[in-house]
Amino acid sequence: MSLLSAGALAKIERELVKYPPEQKQSAVMAALAIAQDEHGWLSNALMEEVAAVLGMPPVWVYEVATFYAMYNLKPQGRHKVAICTNLPCALSGALEAAEHLKRKCGVEAFNQTSADGRFTVKEGECFGACGDAPVMLVNNKRMVGFMTPDKIDKLVEELK
Known about the structure:
By secondary structure, the protein is of the alpha+beta class. Helices cover 45% and strands 12% of the residues. The protein contains seven helices and five strands, in the order H-H-H-H-E-H-H-E-E-E-E-H.
């Protein structure tokens, strides 16, 4: 029985045609993102299925999934909010914003999920938007900048 739905497999197939047939493994990042979007996180069994679809050793898929922070290797809250704390963001208030975000989401530290399962707060690396610091990335897909306590409050309320 497949862990990936027919829809997810079709999306992966659409990614595969972007590469020569002998380089199917080049679609690994896209395939992992599709699998994660469907399941919320990447279990070992799911990564093994991605490996089988791409015709590559599972360890290669694990290497990609463990290298990049965008992949969830354990269940997360419904919303994953990452805040950049690298120097440009830190100099623009990211450390204070991070503390406010954690309080507002009901977690005490990075990599924790709120008791209600709504939020997982992560510390992120540079998102390449230093001019918009402090910057947050919501669910790996939406970047928000200039995050003041008021903007954080509005974001958290919107995500609830």
